[in-house]
TrEMBL record, chain A:
Matches recorded under PANTHER family: D,D-DIPEPTIDE TRANSPORT ATP-BINDING PROTEIN DDPF-RELATED, TRANSPORT ATP-BINDING PROTEIN
Ranges of residues in domain ABC transporter: 31-278, 411-657
NCBIfam families given in the database record: oligo_HPY (TIGR01727), PRK10419.1 (NF007739), PRK11308.1 (NF008453)
Family matches, as PROSITE patterns: ABC_TRANSPORTER_1, ABC_TRANSPORTER_2
Keyword Nucleotide-binding attributed: yes
Family from the record: Belongs to the ABC transporter superfamily.
Biased composition (Basic and acidic residues): 1-10
Keywords of the record: ATP-binding, Nucleotide-binding, Transport
Protein name: ABC transporter domain-containing protein
Organism expressing this protein natively: Frankia canadensis
Compositionally biased spans, kind Low complexity: 388-400
Domain of life, per lineage: Bacteria
GO biological process, one term: transmembrane transport
From TrEMBL, chain B:
Membrane-topology annotation of the record: Multi-pass membrane protein
Tree of life domain: Bacteria
Gene Ontology molecular-function annotations: dipeptide transmembrane transporter activity
Stated name of the protein: ABC-type dipeptide/oligopeptide/nickel transport system, permease component
GO CC terms, sorted: plasma membrane
Entries under InterPro entries matching the protein: BPD_transp_1_N, MetI-like, MetI-like_sf
Family the entry assigns: Belongs to the binding-protein-dependent transport system permease family.
PANTHER family assigned: DIPEPTIDE TRANSPORT SYSTEM PERMEASE PROTEIN DPPB-RELATED (PTHR43163:SF6)
Membrane-spanning ranges: 12-34, 107-127, 139-166, 178-197, 236-258, 278-304
Any Pfam family hit: BPD_transp_1
Record flagged with keyword Cell membrane: yes
Organism: Frankia canadensis
Subcellular localization: Cell membrane
Limits of the ABC transmembrane type-1 domain: 101-301
Amino acid sequence: MTTTEDDGRRTRPAPRPHPDAGADQDQRLVVDGLEVSFGQRGRQVHAVRGVSFTIDPGRTLALVGESGSGKSVTARTIIGLAGDRANVTARDLSFGGQDLTALSPAQWRAVRGGRIALILQDALVSLDPLRTVRAEIAETLRTHRTVPRAQIDERVHSLLAEVGIPDPHRRARQRPHELSGGLRQRALIASAIAAGPRLLIADEPTTALDVTVQVQVLDLLGRLTDAGSSLLLISHDLAVVARLADEIAVMYAGLIVERGTPGQVLDEPHHPYTRALIDAVPSLHARGTRLSTTAATGSDLDLAGPGCPYAARCRLADDRCRTLRPALAEAGPGHQVACWHPVSADAPLVLLPPAPRRPAGSDVIAAGEAAAISEAVAVSGTVRGDSPRALAGPGPAEPARAGRDESDVLLRVDGLGKRFRAPDGTWHEAARDVTFALPAGRTLGLVGESGSGKTTTARMVLGALEPDEGTVWFAGQRWNGQGVAEKSRRPHRRRVQAVYQDPLGSFDPRFTVERLVAEAVAVAGVPRGPARRARVVDLLDTVGLSARLLDRRPLELSGGQRQRVALARAIAPEPDLLVCDEPVSALDVSIQAQILDLLADLQAGFGLAVLFISHDLGVIRHVSDRVLVMKDGRTVEAGEAEQVLTAPAHDYTRTLLASAGIRP
Amino acid sequence: MIVRLLSGVAKRLLAAVVVMVGAATLAFGALHLIPGDQVSILLGPNSAASPEVRAQIRSDYGFDRPLVVQYAQYLSNVVRGRLGESYQQNQPVSALIGGQVWPTLQLAAAALGLALVIAAVSAVATAGRRPAWRSLASAWELVAVSTPAFWTGLLLLTAFSFQLHVFPVAGAQDLRSLVLPALALALSLAGVLGQVLREGLETALRQPFATTARARGLSQLAVTTRHAFRHAAVPLLTLAGWLTGTLVGGVVAVETVFGRPGIGALILLAVSTKDMPVVMGIVLLCGLIFVVTSLLVDLLAVVVDPRLRAEAVAV
């Protein structure tokens, strides 16, 4: 498995032999039969169950999986930071011949930072926010006595230059919050590599970054492996992994279920879970196709059972799957799969029966869904015509809806502008001359990187922020602008609802699900008592949640369930417009797929207009009729979704697309 | 930037002045809200002064003038540092307080310093460690918080002065006599501060930067002292500043138990004899201590957390 063939995804050359090649060959990470569990006997949680892999010098292994799959625990265990309560056993866990299971605390301190380094997700919180970049990098140098004390400053500056930070003298004096996301992630990497470790563990190193910056940071990591370091890359993002990995291992419930080169795993996945992961990436699927294929959500699963842990979610599962766990078996040269029913590359999973969990009012939604899909095809016939998946949508076109034209505008935004005062006293233009129109029942995707003005625009559309110039028209009335009073908006407030990225922040943590939804139902005018409760249950059913969750509190829900509750609240007053600000950005890809499918169902069923804000072009492409690309508060490009995303006119849109790995 | 910084400082100072005027007004109001005639209070319960003498006193002290005039006169005196004469001791209030304030400040500073040290040691040693150690530390902190300082003082006296003869029983002659009272006062403070500090340390240790620091090769102790402590220090400072403002009450009891000179004895005497000018002077002193410590805490917080700089300027 350490000899993986190059499949052309990585353009860089095969690892060069390091100057001291002899010693270098010993710098190999061996993980054999790693088991990690937490807690005491009886209530043990097995986070990692018999994981094995090796990484040779200069190579990159990517561990891919959803949250809770055990990939981060595996990474932390290798650097000895799985925590006091972790019970770690392994047949072999060694780096460069040094047994990592038998190290004293002092020996561990020499290994950490010195031979193995860890790079975490967001440098804003992964670097000490109270200390300067210099202090953070110097700490590594001092701890491992890498350079004499007098040369520390000099070395800090050369390290910053090495990771591609311009003006290192100035940057070294700054603190993480004073740097941009990309720069501080580079600074974090500089602090990790300061003592010259031979193995880098990068746990979601680019997840918090904008796509264009992601590419730069990944390139930096690639350069480091070219220089002879090994890299263990942890990510949930298949695009990130494809760019960098020599080998990919897919983890599920603490087990490696598939392993191979990026070509094998991403292009010819054999495990149904790998297949589902890839299918759930929205950018690969045209509008109107369903993304989620799994039958059950993670919370209902019996992962510790004797069978295949994926059996409960797998459509191919039979009795053998549920009683006997499959071992990793060769599926090709260097390609291993742990599955009794490996899928062949061509067999489309889409032909399998649809998900059994349909909302109760499913006939209504199903009809609406068909209409939405046919409408999507009809409206943009020429551009969408080349997409076979869109054309394969069920049901014939419905003339009533397809005939809708642009004059039926629900939301019109006209020359919106907003300025803010920065802490240093200068004015910052968050939005400038933003103009668009959104017809009833349609979706407008607002895409851009952080700081592009997406959220400012959304807040002005919601009437939460008064614009400095311009007007928002909603249903033919002045909705927001200079001099529009909240009092005049209030009677129509219920017609505009919002869904945010993190519902945990907008839910009272002490409220139960019933109370959370009932609050929204009350606003819609449903009287207290059995009627209200019935409406709550009805709404939960519509968003695919069981009434058993009524007594749960937000913290006891999974991320996907929380977002479903947020949607239930949003649709309770039967709005005409839904403003979604990064609604799926915090979710695992398979959960994201379910929420996007649900949103499509709701939109079709209730004829909602949706203003969908995201930094993720794939998501935007999947949900939008029209797209607006924003940068630094301005609109750089706007048009039909397929038009903008397949034939971008603006350089910035092209850069975004290229960074996201979407080929126009 | 400089202008904004200066305006920020000016705003803080203005707020301090407002607090001081408030304290003075409160003291003045208290004097005039106390039931009974000012002159009777001044003369004491057993005085046999004739009505003529009383009228004379009334006019000497200006009690016959309108309240507004008295208030203005009082404020202008306070600004010039004149706190009036004690009714009972025939001395200027400023001289009385000035003569007694140093032993008290000594005791308060020693107690606060000691409390911070005890809290820091106890919290750093137990934060993020085994649950057994944590529960033990939490338990002693709970006991320390809930035990009144005078009771702790009596216990300490019994043990170290009467039984072991290590420390003197009373007085303020040298540093040795400071140890027991400071400890008595510090223990309950240390209990509160320790709990807040441990909470802050553990919050900081759960942050990703703590993991990054461990992954750099730092020991748990080094991460706690070099990284987490600074994060936990801001809430600790805020609380310590607030506790300093309330320390006077504890000082009275402890000074009495240990027979120390200081503001405590002065307060007791002034309150029991209704010596209003002295009481008002002490109210002003408390206000001053509160204002100064608040300014100090704000300043230190900005030093500890540079991110607060922008906010401090903006406020």
